[in-house]
Structures are given as structure tokens and as C-alpha cells.
Amino acid sequence: MKNKTSLLFLIGALFALIVGVLFGLLASLQYIIPEFLKEYIPFNKMRPFHVTTVVSWIILCATGSIYFFITRIEGLKLFSAKLAKFHFIIFLLTGLGIYISFLTGKMEGREYLAYSPILTIPILIGWIFFGVNYFKTIAKNVSNWPVYYWMWGTGIVFMIYHLCEAHLWVFPYFKDYVVRDISVQWKSYGSFVGSWNMLVYGIAIYLMSKIKSDNSLARGKTVFFFYFLGLTNLMFGWAHHTYLIPMQPWIRYVAYGISMTEWVVLIHIIYCWKKSLSNEEKQSYCMAYKFLITADFWIFLNLILALLFSIPAINFFTHGTHITVAHSMGTTIGINATILLASVFFIVSKIDPKFNINQFLIKKGYFLFKGSLLFFWCSLLIAGIKKSYWMYFSENILFSEMQDSLYFVYIAIFIFGFGLVIAIISLATVLLKPLLKTLNT
Ligand code: HEM
């Protein structure tokens, strides 16, 4: 294999996944024992360590998969292999910079981008390199683009735009006006997630069309309708992030309708694809198929949760509780990470078709992943419901008493989280082996 940059991204992604879930496990232990590691990495640092590392897994894996698909499967010659290498090196060094920024307490960034804002500059340069390489490679060689090329291109462009937007708060024009500041900040986060969803959902459609060996699947009316819904959602679907801010109610209703419809259409696409597959096709990429079906189930579960808590009257009670965490982890693990694991299984079966090593670990890991994720998610919901009840319906109960009453729920979060970590590490190590082997040959 000549150009191995895609492998570097995928290997980096799997390492980030392993490290990221370990940070998550330590954070969940701090729910039970608040003093645990407090001197070295308190919860307010452990959380950004966890969130930034798992978000890096999503970004690196999506990027590595796209580089791999266009060069190795579509056989296109990359506009510049050097640019791709620089892209990887920049992301790697910035990742180290972010860890140093957390360790030294330079966390003047906001929410999900808590690191020192100056580090956004190299991240932006990396995305621009990716964009130039992607468009120069595809535009020259492909006509009549299937939907996934549109989705990936759109994801890259909007990612650059929204990363800039998420940092507008550094200017006094935004920073000095609370409503303007919060509106732009939360709008940008919603759209930022919408941009990586474009990359990940594009990968899901790519995988479906390759497993079915049917390119027409990525050119039909339904998938383009889905693309335009996703694009509208990316641009306007952030309203549910800004319930606190005064705005016209119709904006929320439209945003809400679009984001829910997007998921309904994706469930429909995966369901129809599943029904159309022969047993042989299912078997040929067995694990990629299974993970895509699992993602479909999680889209359905998250749709129900989101339908409920996006209703303003209910959102009032869920805001600031673990119900929101269940939503973000339910979507990033159940949908994003699951589709990306399908992608890495697909890639590994392409580079090493005799990939039958450790089927035992894969099967057990897969079942543990599905089972523990479901119970982990339910435990987060229970924690959220209990806290919401305390906030709005109970009287004369101290915060510390409420925390004590959550003790067993926190234990459940830790135990199921531990199961999830074991499952993810088993799957990631099995996948790392053939990737590292190919990198070294
Ligand atoms: C691929 C795996 C994972 C992904 C993508 C992921 C993603 C996330 C995200 C996006 C958040 C921010 C939530 C929010 O602000 O609403 C979060 C928070 C958190 N995650 Fe995870 N997570 C993963 C695995 C885990 C695991 C395995 C555990 C525990 C064993 C865990 C424990 C936590 C904790 C304790 C928080 C902090 C919640 C709070 O603010 O109270 N995560 N995770």
C-alpha cells in the first residue's frame, strides 16, 4: 500500500477512542468518589479531557475513512499526498497542544472547545488542507457526484465556517452582549455537530452502497432529499440549543421539525437497505452490517428521546440534567461511533480479506457494546429524571441529600460504563492489529 496517511488517521482515531473512554470512566468514578484524582485531574478537567478526546476519535476516524475510500476503494489519485501528511501531523501536534493546555490549566475556551482558543488556528489550517485536497481530487476525476461526495464536501466547508463562528466570542462585539454571545455560541455548536454528521452519515450511505454493490443507492431521490434535509438542519436546526434565548416560536418549530424528519428519513434509508440485502451480502461484510443495524436502532431510540425533550414544556425540566448527557452520549456513541466502527470493520476487511482473527473477541465485544450502552444510557436517563424532580418538584431537600440519593444510579453508570469501555477496547485492539500490520509493510 503506497499512501498510508489514511491508516495513520484511523490508527490515531482508535487510540483516541481507547484513551477517551478511559477518561470517561475516570470521570464517572468521580461521580461516586468526588475526591478521586481531584488533586491531579479534577472533574472540571477530566470532562474536557474525555469530551475532546472522543470528539477527536469521531473527526479522525471520519477523515481517515474518507481518505481511504477515495484513494483505496475509488482508486482516485490524491491531489497531494504531502498535504494529507501535513494534515495528519498538524492534527497530531495540535492534539498534544490541547492536552498541554488542559494540564497547565489554560482552559479559557468555551464548553466543548475548552482548550486555549489559539489552538483553533492549526486545526483550521488542517481542515483547509483537507478541503483543498478533497475538492481538487474529486472535482477533477468525478462527474455526476453520488450523494456521499456532496455530504463530505459540505461537511468540510461548514466545519471550517462553524469552527470560526464558535470563536466569535473573542471579539467584544459578541462577548459584551450576553444574548448575542449565547446565541452565536450555541448556534455554532449545533451546526458544528451538524457538520461532522454530514461526514459520518455520508460514510453510512457509502458503506451501504458498497455492501450492496449498488451505486444507484447513493444517487436516488430519497438520499438527496436526506442530504438537503441534513443541510437545512445544519444551517437552521440549532434552535433547540437556544431555548433560553428569546426568539420567535416559529423558528423553534421549524428547526425541531427538520431535525426530527432528518432522523426519520435516515431510519427509513437504513431499514430499506437492510430489507433489500441478500444473506450473502450480509455475510460478506458481517461486522460492518451489524454495526450499521445497531446505529439504526440508536437513531430510533434517540429520535424518541429528542421528540420528547425538544417540546419546550418538557425541555424546561430536562435542561441541565443528565437527560441532556444521555442525548449527547446516546447520539455520539450510538449513532456516530457505531457508524464509524462499521466503517473501520469495512476498511479492515478490504485491506485484510482473511480477517478472521479473534472472532471470539469481536462477537463478545459486539454484544457487550450493545448491552452495556443500552443500560448505561438508561442509567443516565434515571439520573436526569431524579435530578429534575429534585429541581422542580421537591421541597426542603438539600443538594447533598439529592446527590446521596443518586449514589446507586452513579454506581450503575460506572458499572455499565465499565462494560462499555471493555467492549470498546476489545473491538479497537482487534481493529488496530491489521491496521498497524499494513502500516508496517
Ligand atoms: C465513544 C464513546 C463516548 C463518546 C463519543 C462520549 C461522548 C460524550 C460527550 C459528547 C459528552 C458531553 C455531554 C454533554 O455535555 O452533554 C460526554 C460526557 C461524559 N461522558 Fe462520555 N462518551 C463516550 C464514552 C463514555 C464512557 C464509556 C463513559 C463512562 C464510563 C463516559 C462518561 C462520561 C461522563 C462522566 C461525562 C460527563 C457528564 C457530565 O457533564 O456530568 N463516556 N461524553
Order of helices and strands: HHHHHHHHHHHHHHHH
Class inferred from helices and paired strands: mainly alpha
Q: Which of globular, elongated, flat, extended, rod-shaped describes the shape?
A: globular
Distance N terminus to C terminus?
A: 8 Å
Q: Count helical runs.
A: 16
As a whole number of angstroms, the C-alpha radius of gyration is 21 Å
- State the total count of DSSP E strands: 0
Low-pLDDT runs: none
Subunit organisation of the chains: single chain
* Main beta sheet strand tally, sense and closure: none
Share of helical residues: over 70%
**Small molecules in complex:** protoporphyrin IX containing FE
Mean pLDDT: 92
Share of β-strand residues: under 5%
Kindly describe this structure.
The protein contains 16 helices and no strands. Helices cover 79% and strands 0% of the residues. By secondary structure, the chain is mainly α. The model has no long low-confidence stretch (mean pLDDT 92). The chain starts with a helix and ends with a helix. Helix 5 (147-165) packs parallel to helix 8. It binds protoporphyrin IX containing FE. The site of protoporphyrin IX containing FE (HEM) has 20 residues, from helix 1, helix 2, helix 13 and helix 16.
Describe the structure in brief.
The protein has 441 residues and is mainly α. It is built from 16 helices and no strands.
Descriptors for this entry?
441 residues, mainly alpha, 16 helices, binds protoporphyrin IX containing FE
List the helices and strands and how they pair.
Layout: H1 5-32, H2 43-73, H3 81-103, H4 120-141, H5 147-165, H6 172-175, H7 178-211, H8 221-236, H9 249-276, H10 279-284, H11 286-309, H12 312-318, H13 322-351, H14 359-392, H15 399-405, H16 407-440
Helix pairs in contact: 1-2, 1-3, 1-16, 2-3, 2-7, 2-13, 3-4, 4-5, 5-7, 5-8, 7-8, 7-13, 8-9, 9-11, 11-13, 13-14, 13-16, 14-16
The chain binds protoporphyrin IX containing FE.
